[in-house]
Amino acid sequence: MRRETFKSADFRAFLTPHPSPLTFLLTTVALLLTLSGCAKETPIYRDQSFVFGTMVEVTISGEEEVRARELAGKVLADFDYLHRTLHAWEPGALSRMNAVFAQSPSKAAVVPGLVPIIQDATRFSEMSGGLFNPAIGRLIKLWGFQGDEFKPQLPDPREIKALVQASPHMADIVFEGIQFYSKNSAVQLDLGGYAKGYALDLAAEYLRAQGVKGALINIGGNIIAVGSRGGQPWRVGVQHPRKPTAIASLELHDGEAIGTSGDYQRYFELDGKRYCHIIDPRTGYPAQGVQAVTVLIPRGNNAGTLSDVASKPAFIAGVKGWRAAAQAMGASSAMLIDERGEVYLTAAMKKRLEFQEKGLVFHEVP
């Protein structure tokens, strides 16, 4: 029986098959996981799957293989279920909601488990001043980013303008008892910038509840740490946005989460210009002038979610507004790489990063 609520203690128990080595090598992630600094006798177990449109890896330290396999399998199974439930365009609970929104002001019964998720995403959208806006799914679809392949073609500017003027926002969604509706028929939810982080928090909570002393969960570069690896911090690398290597690395401590938004995973190029999937809701066009934004979030109840969400407003705000946008989301440790490859970072982030790339141009901000 499928659940319609999401509680970390309810993870299903079946194993997700490993992807082939070729699939793993061809999958680009926002952060490269580099594990080091641990006693040899500490057992390490890793399991991988392809979920949320990206590669996912669960690493568990200090557990016997049978138990670690069971724990990792439950985490990956729950990720798969969550992915299907929150998918923006394939059949599922969220796509059914979107169908109702399109018939505004029609009402329908809501899946209870979606209410806190949407309310949480609405809160983050308000924190960002609307730069993080999961209600612009129609714009994302118009640009061709709701699919596995991206065609190098530009949408009709008139359609873009019409959707921007329709001004869909999360605040347009209304819950009345067991029913919901939208005050704006242009609302179409796409939680692609939220779901991975939310899944990280669920997984971390579950593994802690199971007594796991060390784990690292990596969903396409959004990473959260549980405990340590044999008494040593986990070490992760920050993906270079234009090279298949890490631009820097850092130690990730218990409860911390890190995430990157970049223009190098979901994008197409046309006439020498790159168009990525991160859409500026103010203009209706993909954000420009930035290659990547990375945020480091301290331990907290929603560290994983923030690692996914907080980088988006900073990416959209660009070089001039990134610091204020990150600060508004509570991300004091942040880094931006602009279109020329120059690095802007906060003093707090500079203290944590060890750069491998030589010849970089740095701009430090308080």
Q: Give the fraction of residues assigned to helices.
A: 25-40%
Q: Architecture of the largest domain in CATH?
A: Roll
> How would you name the CATH homologous superfamily of the largest domain?
ApbE-like domains
* CATH fold-level label of the largest domain: T-fold
Distance from N terminus to C terminus (CA atoms, Å) equals 51 Å
Strand content: 25-35%
Count of beta strands: 18
Unreliable segments (pLDDT under 50, ≥5 consecutive)? Answer: 1-39
Structural class: alpha+beta
Overall tally of structural domains: 2
**Rg calculated over all Cα atoms:** 20 Å
**How confident overall, as mean pLDDT?**
89
- Major β-sheet strand ordering: 2-3-7-8-11-14-15-16-18
**What is the chain-wise order of helices and strands?**
HEEEHHEHHHEEHEEEEEEEEHHEEHEE
Q: What's the overall geometry?
A: globular
Number of helices: 10
